[in-house]
What does this fold into?
Amino acid sequence: MKPRRPRQAVPVGDTDPFEPTPARPVRCRARAMGHDTQFEPHHHPWGQLACCASGLLQVTVAAPSCEGGERPGYETTTIVPPSRAVWIPPGARHAVTMLEASQLHTLYIDASVVPADWRCSRVLVVSPLLRELVRGMDQPHAQQAPQQQALATLVLTEIANAPTQPLGVPMPDPQHGDRRLRALCEAVMNAPALHANLAAWAAHSGASERTLARLFREELGTGFQRWRQQVVLAHALPMLARGTPVSQVAAASGYASDSAFTAMFRAALGQPPTRFGPRFESATP
It folds into this structure.
C-alpha cells in the first residue's frame, strides 16, 4: 500500500485580528485552503461556525458533557459539504482537515452571545440567506460598525433557526479510548463499504465481535449498525451534493440495491437521497 502523504499543518495561533468581542461579537475569516491541509487540535474561548463555499471539510470536535445524557470523552467527526456547517461551542477542542481544496469560511462568535443551549456541537443546514450573510461579512464595504452589527444580528438569528441534522460520527477518545475500537472506527471511516457487519470487521481488528459490541455501547453509547449508518450518511451526503448518481452512492456505501440505500436514507433524514443533489442543495430553505 502506498504510504499516505503527511498532511500540511496550518498555524492556529494567528487569530488575533479576528477575535470577537462583546462589542463586535461575530467575525468572519475566509481562506482558500489546499487539499489535505489541516488545523491540528486546538481550542479557544469563543464559538465557531465552520463551513465552506466550495470543497469538502472534515471537522472533529471533542464532545463536552451535554444535556441529554451524552457521554463525555469521545469525539464527533463530520464530513462537511458546502450545504452544511458545523457549530463548535466555546472552549471545545477541535480539528479541521481539508478533504478537497476548499474555500473555508469561519465565523468566530463571542461567548457573550452564545445561548446556553449551544453548548454542544451540531450540524446545521446552510440556507441561501446564511450563505450570503457569511460572504457579506467578508466584504470590505461591510467592515463599518453599523453594517457589522446588522449582519451579526442576522447571522445569529439564522444560526439559531437553522435546521440540524444527525450527521456527526462519534469516535473514541484518542488518549483514553480503547485502541482496538479506535482503529476499527478509523478503518470504517476510511472505507465504509468494505464490510457491512461487525463480525467481518472484527476478523481484522484483534478483538472479538462480542468485545467490540460492548465497547461501542460503553464508549460511544450506540450499537455498531447505528454507528455505521452515521458513517455512511457522512460519506454519502457530499457525494450526492456533487451530483453523483444515487446508484453509485449506494454502491460506494456498501448497499446491494438503490432501494435499500434509499430506504435507509429516508428513514434517517426524512427525505430521499435525490433531494440532496446539487439542484436541490442550492435552493435549500
Remarks:
- The two ends are 44 Å apart (CA to CA).
- DSSP finds nine helices and twelve strands in the chain.
